[in-house]
User: What shape does this take?
Amino acid sequence: MNDIEAAAAPGGDDSVLPFQVEALDARGRVVTLGPALDTILGRHDYPPSVSRLLGEAVALTALLGTSLKFQGRFIVQTQSDGPVHMLVVDFETPDRIRACARFDRAAVEASVAEGRDRPEHLLGNGHLAMTVDQGTNMSRYQGVVPLDGRSLEDAAHQYFAQSEQIPTRVRLAVGELMTRDQDGLRREWRAGGLLVQFLPEAPERVRVRDLHPGDAPEGTPDDLGDDEDDAWTEARSLVETIEDVELTDPEVTAERLLYRLFHERGVRVFERQPLHEQCRCSRERVDDMLRSFTGEERRDMTVDGRITVTCEFCSTVYDFDPAPFESSDAV
Assistant: This one.
């Protein structure tokens, strides 16, 4: 680990950089996504607004998943009644990530045409689930928060206030970088995010202020910030100054962003954690899945004498002859 200096060396894309600001009792991580996100989104014919929303979900999952200290999976999933019905991002330790979205294209286009293209508009009402899966011999842990007109940032704040009770601030951004190659202009997707948490040694210093007052009388302030620790107020306020472009511009590295935010207090960074876009599907896994169906179910899947399965995550198409499955059933 090392302290950041003004001339910090540039960091790389597709990685998470952990950091600590000891003077403010704050720890956090910065994620920078480039080619990995562009590959994930490029495999699908998503409208730009859906790509941006899924990009935010990928950045959020990377920030949280890379904090796992064991072999397992971290899954972020939304289910809602908005134009984008579902987002699924699957992170497998230590560094593999994949993602996909389900949406109503006509409803997305109508919402965008009305100027309702923000995440909260596309998601609508539903819930966000964050699942930690430690394997077959361990129980799963799942935290669920509502999506009632909330953005993914807001839902993440609610999750930490409700489930972890740790003061947390998250910033997410997705952008498009236009590049020119031999075929002309090309769009490349980028995303970035920063998560900071207040983790003082004295637990009585922690004050969670992200919870909504619920059924409190009208006029009750949402933010009871008078009791908030001064160190956390400073850390949170600094993070809130981050512009979207600072999280998506390839010229603004994670180190430079952290230096801009915390150089007066001193910020220390730790070993960078790489990220790789990689799907978990394979022909063998799909074969096993098909064998779990009944013969009648497989016959319903057969079209022109073939069974075709397309992975929702990576769009890989698997083609099977149904005859071997029927032969194995007869044994």
About this structure: Residues 5-10, 209-217 have pLDDT under 50 and may be disordered. The CA atoms of residues 241 and 280 lie 38 Å apart. The two ends are 60 Å apart (CA to CA).
